[in-house]
Amino acid sequence: MTDQCATGSLSERKASCRAGSNIAFIKYWGVVDGTTSAASGQQLVVSDDLNIPLNNSISMTLADAHTTTTVAWDNSADLPTDRISIDGVQLQGAPAERIGAHLDRLRALAGVSDRAHVVSNNNFPMASGIASSASGFAALTVAAAAALGLQLDAAQLSAVARQGSGSASRSLFGGFVEWERGWGEGESFTCPEATVLDSRSVAHQMYDEGHWALRDIIAIVSAGAKKVSSSSGHRLAVTSPFNAARTECVSEWLATVRRAIAARDISLLGPILEADALAMHSVMMTSAPSLLYWQPGTLEVLHAVRAWREEEGVPVYFTIDAGPNVHLICEVDSAAEVERRLRGLAAVGRVLSSGPGAGPQLLDGHLF
Amino acid sequence: MTDQCATGSLSERKASCRAGSNIAFIKYWGVVDGTTSAASGQQLVVSDDLNIPLNNSISMTLADAHTTTTVAWDNSADLPTDRISIDGVQLQGAPAERIGAHLDRLRALAGVSDRAHVVSNNNFPMASGIASSASGFAALTVAAAAALGLQLDAAQLSAVARQGSGSASRSLFGGFVEWERGWGEGESFTCPEATVLDSRSVAHQMYDEGHWALRDIIAIVSAGAKKVSSSSGHRLAVTSPFNAARTECVSEWLATVRRAIAARDISLLGPILEADALAMHSVMMTSAPSLLYWQPGTLEVLHAVRAWREEEGVPVYFTIDAGPNVHLICEVDSAAEVERRLRGLAAVGRVLSSGPGAGPQLLDGHLF
């Protein structure tokens, strides 16, 4: 009876969520956190863990690359710390601490000190160029909040997810999504008022997943782990001499990408995709220390994409996240042809592909 | 007798020169030619063919990569156009016109309309990552001027060579060389006064070739011709959003490189070498159109160099010209070890190597 009751209680405080990863058309790179100025004459003193970005970003949520996460809160003395498993592996050390720190945010919102059982599975390989932190922190946030009975809307959940991983803020919505940086030119913030940015820097849906049948075809050229994680890299953006010029360009590119998505115009979207990715990697390469995420296969794919487009008229464009793998963006009509060509390149191992997907879904079934 | 006399006359108006190529530690990328402003509030309207650079550059002249050129002026009616041969191939079309235009500059200085026989040989393969235009236009300028009996000093010859190919201005001197851009912040020029820049934008020797036993070890990862020539690329620099920030950085890097060469300090020189090369390639990648000179093998070498240095303590640094091949810079003590490691990389074909060399030498023997 006691056992049944405990099980019943645990079951009520358990929830599961599936959330899609996303691919950014305008990248998030660099945070204002911990900096004293983001632009000339401007003070932005933000605590070091809010993930308030230097620029707005725009992404497409992915239908076929998602994370499913079950969270069960447990106040029994048997569980002294959170227990977290991803893809069947029990986490230890820094990765476990990062997720524990995210669970702390949810505990603080609910005013509880319970520990959590977390089981999370990706339907795509880790280190594949698909941002598992985006889908993972989105699914974790939604499942953990639901299991705690927190009444948060999607924007509030987006703000919480952002603190776990910036790009997770965008995976709170399906389709085509813009994440607002939350601060304006000339605005000044110092701690503790800076926390107002926390509620402002959230994502919203621009168009749902039915708006435009784009494909993200991912060429995996290296499945090795990155030497420098994205979360460390974001702190380095401000050390690049090109950072300020990049964020200025991004303002202009954002406007074009909004128009391109509205008009479903790949020939307007594509060149900005490539320019934005190259600008981000230029900032990475010229930061101190210099971050060189590309591998030989990255360049084989970049040259191939340009040759297919410029010499053979295939309407496909590339973008590259903070890693070596290349995302090819095209409309659904060109997808089979692009995928066929990609599989013919020596440097390309696995090829993954996804169209736009829905936002996070709470599930009835649980992973444990 | 007539024949002998003609031969005698031709022989007097014939000269040969050997000049070394050079590797830039601070790169030349971008010209002010044809632009209306190079910095805010500044007007620099320069005619389109002076090769007045956006920034000073610093290089080491190479001992073991050189061009030997013989020029013979001929006023006989038998020769309606210049006849130019490089590495045994008779030039036609655009390459011949470019050299013809350079010979025009020398004809104008001498006030003659004679045609020239030019025979030029490189002791290194073309498209190898060694700038044959630097050594080639330096040797051509010196030989052609000597054969015309022009009384020009090295700075004047440097200005003439610069108009053929910017980096050739540096090959007029041996050892360690700086090429002055020739204009100051805030200075304004409009045509025709802008021609004053022509005499100001020249190179000078910082230290001779005995100053520091550095080595340039060149990893050839691709011997294909470039899609976009450097001379076209220089016109695109101003279209990159990072161009202004790069030229600002270069001012600071120049000062450090001068100190590093003075102190023969590879650990001071090296990081700037890499930062400057990555900044230049960032400008190239983000110009419109985007120039992507790297190939897969480029990245294999970059990652290898960083691993050798950071994980194994080998004091070697990379730089990359407008092409895919990588120059590894180290002191002579490390050269054998670096060369051995380089030959072990799958992507590396041929390896070339050179120390600092002397300036152009007029030769007694001729190529024809």
Describe the structure.
Chain A is α+β, with helices and mostly antiparallel strands and 368 residues long. Helix content of chain A is 37%, strand content 21%. In chain A, strands 1, 2, 3, 4, 5, 6, 7 and 12 form an eight-stranded mixed sheet that branches. In chain A, α7 runs antiparallel to α8. Chain A is globular, with a radius of gyration of 20 Å. At the A-B interface, α7, α8 and α9 of A face α7, α8 and α9 of B.
Notable characteristics:
homodimer, 368 residues, 4-stranded antiparallel sheet, 10 helices, disordered N terminus
List the helices and strands and how they pair.
2 copies of one chain form a homodimer.
Chain A: H1 2-12, E1 14-26, E2 57-74, E3 83-86, E4 89-90, H2 93-110, E5 115-122, H3 132-148, H4 154-164, E6 176-179, H5 196-200, E7 203-207, E8 214-219, H6 230-234, H7 243-263, H8 266-285, H9 296-312, E9 317-319, E10 326-331, H10 332-343, E11 351-354, E12 361-363
Parallel strand pairs in A: 3-5
Antiparallel strand pairs in A: 1-2, 1-12, 2-5, 2-6, 3-4, 6-7, 8-10, 8-11, 9-10
Helix pairs in contact in A: 2-3, 2-4, 3-4, 7-8
Which chains make the largest contact?
Answer: A-B, 28 and 28 residues
Q: Which overall shape of chain A is indicated by the principal axes computed on the Cα atoms? A: globular
Strand fraction band of chain A? 15-25%
Could you describe the largest sheet of chain A, including whether it forms a barrel? Answer: 8 strands, mixed
Compute the number of helices of chain A: 10
Class by helix and strand content of chain A? Answer: alpha+beta
| Helix content class of chain A | 25-40%
Q: Give the number of DSSP strands of chain A.
A: 12
Q: What distance lies between the first and last C-alpha atoms of chain A, to the nearest angstrom?
A: 21 Å
The radius of gyration of chain A is: 20 Å
List low-confidence stretches of chain A: 1-9
Mean pLDDT of chain A: 91
- For this structure, the quaternary state is homodimer
- Written as H for each helix and E for each strand, in order along the chain, the element string of chain A is HEEEEHEHHEHEEHHHHEEHEE
